[in-house]
Amino acid sequence: MKNLGLVVIAAFLGAVGVQCLIYLINALSSLCYLGAFSIEAPDLSNSGLGAWMVVIPVAGALLGILLIKFGKKSFTPLSAVIMTGAGFPFGVEGVLASGLFLCGERKLLKAAVIASGLACLLNAPVAGAVLVFELGFVEVSVLNVLALVLAAGTGCLLRFVWRGWDAVLFLETLPAFRLGNLYIYFLAGMVVSLLGILMNWLIKKLGQITFQRAWLPVAAAFVIGVLGWLRPEGLGTGSNFIPELASGHINLQILLGLSLVRMVMLILAAGAGAPGRELIISPFLLIGGALGMASIFLICLVAGQTDVTPGLAAIVGIVALLAGRLPVILTALILSIELTHQWMVLLPVITALIPAILLRKWIVRSGTN
User: Rounded to two decimals, what is the model's pTM?
Assistant: First the structure.
């Protein structure tokens, strides 16, 4: 009972921490790029700074690295906040995970913080609880399952209090699809999951660089700044674009910024070892959603199909990228329902997950990733 009490406290702090981090990162991004204070997700494409946008990620990286290098390990979460607010494409959950060392060696408390934080951030309590098991935070046991159900429930309850019960990826229309079109989702799942596997490989290769390792985030920040100047949709958390992905009200330039440009930024940031890389989930909503829409659009163009719902294409891309990047097949499946509040997405999502599962099995057997 004592452990369960500590789990609830940790879950409460995790959910509150997520909400505070959202406000803090939004405020910092608004101040840096827009010169105004706001806790709402900013649209950085309206900054008007031009080439000066390159300076902000570099300055944020320098400050963050100095805090860690000449300060203490306890400054790591603050460093992650500064870098993410300055434009690094991490999610709030990554910043939260960078402070898990405060829990010491208590794995269950760490798992409770993550499960509650994801439940609060994405309104996905079941996916949050399952994720920590699939990633190996804790072993599966009756006590751990009960503890994480309580943790995820706590995060979900606080989410309801603060933001209500609306779906994160709200589909304006019910997904329309025909059984004869399932091959489209299979092909899209193959393409996007392969890109997720490629992300893994590139991040690991960059992680092997040892020359001036501590300062690599600064070099990555310069490239992120240049890319952000060209396509500002790739900067920061980008949570303001999620409703546009769900509705399909998005142009090709923004789609490019949210998909390939943001993916390159994320590879550089994570590969350089920047704080905030410890857990990457919410960035896949944007990258995977945009890649899913782009790949399905191209497949439909070739196949002469026109009856694919944009929001459905986005959720297919999200789960395919997540399953390609991490060994979390069950989490990806559950997340598709919790993000949309639609059971109708299951068949296309399962179809898209099939190539991701097959590719991951091949990778495990071959030892290539």
Answer: 0.91
